[in-house]
Amino acid sequence: MEALLSGIEPSEADLVQMALDMPLDKKIEKAILFYQTYCDGAYGAFSGGKDSCVIKQLAIDAGVEVDWHYNNVTIDPPELVRFIKKVHPDVKWNNPKKHLITRMIEKCCAPTMFRRWCCAEYKEQGGADSNKIIGVRIAESPRRAKLWQQIVPHRKTGKLILCPIVYWTDRDIWEFIKLRHLPYSEIYDEPFPKGTRIENPSLKYDFDRIGCVGCPLQTPAQQQQDFERWPRFKDMWYRGFVSMWNKYHGTLNAKGKPRGFEKYGSADGWWSWWTIDRKQEEAKERTRGQCMFDEMMGQR
């Protein structure tokens, strides 16, 4: 049987699975070589999440210089922001001119899966003239598995998006963090005491990934979990919807037609759709292939 199969080339899916199954020590070795080959002098996208902590440490291990930047999206968990300031003071901050909720009111546009203006304006900025290192991993979602490889040319600039841990699993990440004694945000340990995760990564934790509080790319259940954990952000989002309604209700859009949110009847109706009913509509749109944006940056 082996003789019969010896001449068969592995498929792309086989190669990806082989990369995912590779032992961590080999992944570290290959990542360091990748950094030394492609990443010296690159722009580094640092979010403060576990994956960012790993790619930053790998750059140190590889002995290359990376210009690390954090995009202040203005709605990250406060614990994460404090962690970045305390543990990674060398990371530069890209601060927007306005808070995200303020921009939402100005645009009269609640962000959704198909209106990801917030990602474009707040999350994906910086490093356009440089090769950029990001911490995206295909193990995080089927969509990322379809879009990402170790090196992806940017669709507009042609610069390289470098993904050194694209084939790392969650287990690889936490084993590396433990191996290198890397500090990480306390949010990852909730609801258990700080430090629990690196010793017991298989427990059920509240947050496996950390991102913008209330991000509409999450499921309604995940969004609700965010709002229960950080109620101040829920109030902030809700007030934004009320402000949009009060400002634009009864006015016409740029095409001279009633605005789409009028069908919800009130600010509360619009809010209810955005937090509960929106996902059903997005699922229908997704099946018709009407997604407006490619996913160009990773959740942390």
Walk me through the structure:
- Helix 4 (50-62) links the parallel strand 1 (43-45) and strand 2.
- Helix 4 (50-62) crosses helix 9.
- The chain has helices at residues 2-5, 12-21, 24-39, 50-62, 78-87, 100-107, 117-123, 142-147, 170-180, 196-199, 220-229, 231-248, 267-287; strands at 43-45, 67-71, 92-94, 132-133, 151-153, 160-162.
- With 300 residues, it is an alpha/beta fold.
- A six-stranded mixed beta sheet has the order 3-2-1-4-6-5, with helices on one face.
- The chain has a domain at 11-210: Rossmann fold.
- It has 13 helices and six strands.
In short:
With 300 residues, this protein is α/β, with parallel strands linked by helices.
Low-confidence spans: pLDDT under 50, at least 5 residues?
A: 1-5, 287-300
Q: If you compute it from the alpha carbons, what radius of gyration comes out, rounded to the nearest whole angstrom?
A: 21 Å
Q: How many strands in all?
A: 6
Report mean pLDDT, rounded to a whole number.
89
Order of helices and strands: HHHEHEHEHHEHEEHHHHH
Q: How far is the N terminus from the C terminus?
A: 44 Å
- The number of helices is 13
Structural class from helices and strands? alpha/beta
Which architecture name of one domain does CATH use? 3-Layer(aba) Sandwich
Strand order of the largest sheet: 3-2-1-4-6-5
What's the CATH class label of one domain? Alpha Beta
What percent strand?
5-15%
Largest sheet: 6 strands, mixed
CATH names the topology of one domain as: Rossmann fold
What helical percentage do the residues reach? 40-55%
Q: Going by CATH, what is the homologous superfamily of one domain? A: HUPs
Shape summary: globular
